[in-house]
Amino acid sequence: MRRRKISMRKLVYLIVVVLILGLVLTGCSLLYNIGQVPNTEEKYNENNPNPYIFEVGDLVAGQTEIVGGVEVSNDTEYLYVTYMVDDPWCLTETHLAVANLLVEIPQTNKGNPIPGKFSYSTEHDPSTTEHTYTISLEDIGTDLYIAAHAIVQMQSGDEIQEETAWGYGEPFSGKNWATFFCYEVTAAVKVTNSDELLAALDNEDVQTIVFGADIECPVTGYFGISLDRDSMTLDGNGFVLSYKNIGGGNPTIEAVGDDIVVKNLELKNLTPSSQAYDLIATGERTIFEDNTITRGTEQGHPAIVIGSNAIGSIIRDNTIDFGAIAAGTSDCSIVGNIMDWVISEGIWMHPTDYDAQEAQTRANQLASDNTIRVFGAEGTIEKPIEGPVKVRDINGTWHFSE
Q1: 118, 146 Cβ separation under 8 angstroms
Q2: If we measure between CA atoms, which residue out of 291, 345, 298 comes closest to residue 321?
Q3: Long-range pairs for 161-166 at CB < 8 Å and ≥24 separation?
Q4: Which of 54, 205, 307, 388 fits as disulfide partner to 400, beta carbons 3.0 to 4.6 Å?
Q5: Contact (CB, 8 A) for 196 and 210
């Protein structure tokens, strides 16, 4: 029988065909894996406990690195979208689209978003680490699609690294890595007196409570606000909540649910001799931010307490007179707070999961990003907290760091 020889050209052709068929058969799996795990670890963020697993709220640069966050909230009148980046990154441009339908976000025919055509855009010169867009609720609906795009930069020696960043969420239908996320405008009410405040707290449909005036609680003996629904926001809007005779270590405001925010509120104790906590977080991911606590005199109880179950909580930019911050978990952030020097100065730590020396180390780390006010003969001095920091070990023994 006569053998037919296969030319080298045909052999190469057959190999190419086999390779193409193999890629076609495995392509979905390969693309899936590539989409889930980027092929570089150079931009791995050590602060992200789940590398390459992002959450809505993360601001992701270059597909792989969390450089900050995008926070969305609303009150009775406005929607607020805030971009924030962490050092050493900065924002040089932000572009924001907010729409009632996904198709209303400017896109190419192939489904790639066009940030230059977004309704809200800012070139930041000089650059910034935070920027908020304020949008009237009258101009939008309640079920929203949001695309948050940014250009971020970081200086490394003489070089400037620039990256595109997106608020993490679902991918657009196009081929680039742009993402969007959804937000539902929460039911919000404005309160101007204690009766309206109590009614709003009792209304399970209300998620956001905004102060429209100073409010004095009418109850003597004990008055406590329990924020027991997940994702509630109490926005003081710069007004005062005053209270009387809260004794027995009862909290003025307790964040019981998860993802509770208490911000822009001034808490004022009208009976300074009473012993009470002002803000207590027992739910996960609580945020106490930009609050002022006026106690009037030194007390045995700390002003702000982070419970042992309040993991992921953030205590940021609060001002406290005569009060400390007590943390029952090391999984929290305490930064930018100003407090007066008291006997139990600064930050207390009483975690149950490690010994006193470890607790002291973590307490000092948390304390170093805050400021203490020391009153002396030459006036008031503000300085970073350096210690001593009071900590309690797993045996219940209190210690002071050196």
Answers
A1: no
A2: 298
A3: 162/92, 163/61, 163/62, 163/65, 163/67, 164/61, 164/62, 165/59, 165/60, 165/61, 165/62, 165/67, 165/68, 166/59, 166/60
A4: 388
A5: no
At 235-264, the pLDDT tens digits run 999 999 988 755 555 678 899 999 999 999
Distance of CA 209 to the CA centre of its chain: 19
The answer to whether the beta carbons of residues 369 and 383 sit under 8 Å apart is no
pTM over 0.70: no
Is residue 305 within 8 A of residue 331, CB to CB? The reply is no
In angstroms, the CA 296 to CA 276 distance is 12
Question: Rounded to whole angstroms, how far apart are CA atoms 375 and 314?
Answer: 28
Sign, CA torsion 375/381/382/383 = negative
Angle at Cα 326 formed by Cα 297 and Cα 376, nearest 5°?
40
Residue 219: helix, strand or coil by DSSP? coil
Which residues partner with 183 through β-bridges?
144
The token pair at 137 is: 């609720």
Reported as a single tens digit per residue, the pLDDT across 98-141 is 999 999 999 999 999 999 999 999 999 999 999 999 999 999 98
% pLDDT > 70, the chain: 67
Confidence of residue 37 (pLDDT cuts 50, 70, 90): very low
